[in-house]
Structure to design on (247 residues):
């Protein structure tokens, strides 16, 4: 038992040293992808940290993210924002658009504190309005505006994104991480399609596995395991996002 604990300890120590080295080499700055140039903090909630710095995080969405940045939304509502990779990224890239705001929600208080730190680090605090729990009333506050809903809430998307309870959803664009699993696999995807199929274009985007070739920004080590760790997002095969865009 002691040997296993020691192995885990030294493995964790090695990974932490690796993460620190990557941060130092990249000057704590996202080096690729739509949010290239964003300064970052050494903290992540519910997702991989190094993929964000490398710019490979959720790279399947890069084309859609670029489209979102160029569209000219008045508001982006980031539900499940964690420490703010997307909230701050959007605020940074849309900072020259008059009146643009990001409404960033997360039920984790520590994550919201990190969001504030990341916002200040990138000088976009004035563009981000943080909040804890997003409900139907919150969704309705953006009616009659050009708004994007960006949602990653671990399966609760089916309950929250319901036009029968928040009618203004019909007028928004939405990018949703789908959390279909277990005995009801496919239910969330099917129900969301049904709710928006008459008013929106719907595209499913599938996660694709990463390889060490995605870790091109890491130049200080040839260690295969560390390079694989750097791009690993810990996702299951078959994971999907749904891009729901108003017709």
């Amino acid at each position: 038992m002691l040997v296993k604990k020691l192995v885990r300890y030294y493995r964790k120590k090695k990974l932490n040293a690796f993460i620190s080295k990557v941060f130092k080499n990249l000057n704590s700055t996202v080096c690729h992808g739509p949010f290239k140039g964003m300064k970052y903090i050494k903290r992540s909630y519910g997702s991989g940290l190094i993929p964000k710095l490398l710019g490979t995080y959720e790279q399947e969405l890069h084309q859609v993210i670029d489209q979102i940045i160029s569209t000219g939304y008045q508001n982006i509502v980031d539900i499940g924002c964690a420490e703010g990779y997307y909230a701050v990224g959007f605020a940074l890239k849309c900072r020259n658009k008059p009146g643009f705001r990001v409404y960033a929600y997360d039920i984790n208080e520590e994550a919201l504190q990190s969001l504030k730190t990341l916002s200040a680090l990138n000088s976009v605090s004035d563009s981000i309005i943080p909040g804890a729990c997003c409900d139907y009333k919150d969704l309705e506050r953006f009616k009659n505006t050009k708004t994007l809903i960006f949602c990653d809430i671990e399966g609760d998307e089916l309950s929250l994104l319901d036009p029968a309870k928040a009618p203004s959803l019909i007028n928004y664009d939405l990018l949703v991480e789908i959390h279909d699993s277990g005995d009801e696999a496919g239910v969330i995807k099917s129900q969301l399609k049904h709710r928006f199929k008459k008013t929106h274009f719907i595209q499913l985007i599938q996660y694709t596995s990463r390889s060490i070739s995605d870790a091109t920004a890491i130049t200080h080590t040839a260690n295969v395991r560390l390079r694989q760790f750097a791009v690993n997002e810990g996702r299951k095969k078959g994971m999907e996002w749904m891009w729901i865009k108003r017709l």
The longest strand covers residues 200-206.
